[in-house]
Amino acid sequence: MLQHSSSLCRSEQQQNQANNITSATVKSSIFTVSLLFSSLCLAQSISFQQAEQNVLQDSYSTKANQALQRASQLEAEAVKGLGLPRVDLNVRAYAFHNELDIPLGAVKNNLEQSLSNGVNSKIDEWQNSNPNLGGLADPLKEGLNQTIHDGVGLIPDEYQVALNDQVIRPTVSIMMPLYTGGLTSSAKEVANIKAQRSLLNTKQQQDVQRFELIQAYFNVQLQKQLQASSQFNLQSMQKHYSNALKLEQQGFISKGQRMQFEVARNNAERAHQNTQASYKASLFQLNNLLQSSQITELSTPLFVNSTQNLALNSLLKSFPEQSSLIQKMQMDTRLAKANVKVQNAAKKPSVFAFGEYSLDDKQNWIVGVAARYNLFSGIDKNKNVQAAELQRYASELITEHAKQEIENIIYKSYSEVVTAQQSDQLLQQNVKAAQENLRIQELSFREDMGTATQVIDAQNALSVLKTETALNAYKYVMSLAALLQSHGSIEQFQGYINQPNTRYVR
After folding, report:
1. Strand partners, 169
2. Domain co-membership, 20 together with 123
3. What are the pLDDT digits (tens) for 448-495?
4. Count of the separate structural domains present in the chain
């Protein structure tokens, strides 16, 4: 009688515990529903197509690449006038002070010689016209010459002059290159290649953004499916546990069997909590990528295309013309070739015409042609040319290596796409079989022909299959995205979502 009372008490305690758990679950559900209802006005649903447009138009990376692309175009436009005359307006304002020592010795000698010769000539003329004067001419010459010598001697042998002035001189100068050895044309070519490369860089960045969006968007859908699977498993385990409590109270099963269901229920609840946390984290990451905080629902589900319209050989042959990465690397090779031309041009002479016209009242001008050829600058130009040739050669080799790597990625991704398609078909068959097996095991347990372990295993097997179905669909989506990105046609991904013969994982 005491044992029966004790057993009855334990049964009541277990029933109360189950009721408490159920009540807590109901309260939690009501609280969650109230939160969802309160935030309904802020909730936002978005399709993959809308998310893609959002990323490609408003993301920071998009705006940064647009700015860089525009900058490269402006740089190419800026050098279009290379080779035309350069006209400068120059204004020189300067003051100067200069001290000069002017030697006067030669001037003194010339002055003395000139005066003496003039005086002597006059005396000779005077004597010829007056022959009666006799020998007065010579003493007169000596006296006058001595007087001239003494007078000129008073002049110093040198004179110091100080020059001071302030000048403002406006001029117009013109310089036009006539021959640069190919440097001008090479500079234009480099600028144009960089502008074209910026377009490819923008396309490559958009492809990367598409891939990141696919990964983030469908990861949310994957985590949602995993959460739904774990929630379904938790609800099923809770149902099995509640039934086990009733059967234990009625004496049909033992306490150990009932506790097996309790452990399974607790494990299912723990798994459900983990999937909830993962789902919230993935949703936050997607909102952050889209610069939003209100996205709560995604309208594009995980999918698997039942038929394959991609040909491996065609992908392997056409990717060099499609891949922005390969095209950009080929642009790098063209830049390296242009650099070879630049280095060769540095070895050649340059010829240019020049002119200058003064705008002041003196109106001085000068025109001419000049040539310049560097004989020595401390830089070995031949080695610069050799280095540029090696850089061009290395760029070609790196491009070929990149092609090999992309071929490997295409082959691997294609194989994974096909494998995921095949696995999806088998998983669908296994899910149907697992559902039927669970129904049989539950019926056998009620008829006391099966064990609790068999029911739990059947329930877990069904949950695992649902999880594997979602994981396989996510694997298919990411393999398809990797295949299209490596081929250079990831912008076509949207078309695969709406293809006929597509199974959606909802």
Report:
1. 92
2. no
3. 788 888 888 898 899 899 999 999 999 999 999 999 999 999 999 999
4. 3
